Amino acid sequence: MTVLGWARVWALACSAGWAAAQTPGTVSLASPERGKALLLQRQDSGCVLCHQVQGLPVGGTLGPSLVGLAERSTKAQARERIADARRLNPQTIMPAYLSTEGLNKVATPYQEQTILTAQGLEDILSYLFSPNKATP
Ligand code: HEC
């Protein structure tokens, strides 16, 4: 990964509230709080540009509401969808968050980088599938 790449991962990590340095790519205990922060980030994840999410005050409608997701989907299904939605729907408008395949017009600093880290994806899943989410 390039220096800029690491800087971006680090910025993401800091904004998501990581206290200690971690190696991106390794996954430690998932945190619903970090997941919530990531879901809300319009620039890095963009999830709330397209989805309503339980417990979050903002949300778009380009994608289906994720409220009640845990009742209709398993965590594994959601993980697969978020990692690369194109595998389930080649025409999807949802970005492939854990894949660098087949992307074009990627700005140089971001080439060969995934939008989310593996840790970030697990944090988001832990929020979406947490039974203790606060209501808006
Ligand atoms: C550009 C709009 C867009 C963005 C950004 C987006 N999604 Fe999606 N998402 C969709 C659409 C549209 C679907 C419906 C399935 C399809 O078209 O592939 C979907 C489907 C899903 C599903 C399956 C929902 C269900 O009812 O089973 C999940 C889970 C999901 N998205 C999570 C996320 C997460 C988490 C993020 C951020 C990391 C995100 N999405 C970002 C558009 C988006």
Give a quick precis of the structure.
The chain has 136 residues and is mainly α.
Structural account:
With 136 residues, the chain is mostly helical. It has one domain: Cytochrome c-like domain (Cytochrome Bc1 Complex, Chain D, domain 2), CATH 1.10.760.10. The chain is built from 6 helices and no strands. The protein has helices at 3-15, 32-40, 47-50, 69-72, 75-83, 118-128. Helix 2 crosses helix 6. Mean pLDDT is 82; it is low at 9-22. Heme C (HEC) binds next to helix 3 and helix 5.
Which key phrases capture this entry?
Cytochrome Bc1 Complex, Chain D, domain 2; mainly alpha; about 140 residues; globular; 6 helices; binds heme C
Low-confidence stretches: 9-22
- The CATH architecture term is Orthogonal Bundle
Major sheet attributes: none
List of distinct ligands in this structure: heme C
- C-alpha Rg, in Å? 14 Å
Q: How many extended strands? A: 0
Count of separate DSSP helical elements: 6
Secondary-structure-based class equals mainly alpha
Output the helix-strand order.
Answer: HHHHHH
CATH superfamily: Cytochrome c-like domain
The CATH first-level class comes to Mainly Alpha
Helix fraction bin: 25-40%
What CATH calls the topology is Cytochrome Bc1 Complex, Chain D, domain 2
Shape: globular
- Alpha-carbon distance between the two ends: 38 Å
Estimate nothing, just give the exact number of structural domains. 1
How would you state the average pLDDT, rounded? 82
Strand content: under 5%
Can you lay out the helices and strands and say which pair or pack?
Layout: H1 3-15, H2 32-40, H3 47-50, H4 69-72, H5 75-83, H6 118-128
Helix pairs in contact: 2-6
The structure holds heme C (HEC).
Heme C (HEC) is lined by residues 45-47, 49-51, 62-64, 66, 69, 73, 78, 81-82, 85, 89, 92-95, 97, 124.
